[in-house]
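Why does residue order matter? Because the sequence determines the fold. Keep that principle in mind as you read this record.
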Amino acid sequence: MQSIFMNADHHDKHMAYVSHLSHVSAFMLSTTVLNIEEDQKQIFNLASTGFASTVRLAKSNPSTWASIFSDNSEHSLTALDSYISQLQEMRNDIANRDMDNIKSKIQTSNEIKRVLTGMKYNVVRIS
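Structure:
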């Protein structure tokens, strides 16, 4: 494991993207599915391991995460704005049936595997 030292603001900025945004996504995906799917048995019957993996973070403690979002609201909002923009672009591509853009976005997102493969870091926040 390799340790990374950074100041508090940089830590909070990066955590908003690589941690907080994942939790928001899981919370809101879970909420969306619960609101749309009237028969909750169907969620269980139809959901695959991908869905379970994606919403795993939605089981996190509400008090802990409300506090994190409040304490890091500036960076969390910036991360959310960027994510919402990406979602809107994908929505537009789907609405327009723009297969080239959809494939390109998916291909670009596949790069995260390369980034994450074999990387183990212990991030240390320094005030």
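The mean pLDDT is 90.
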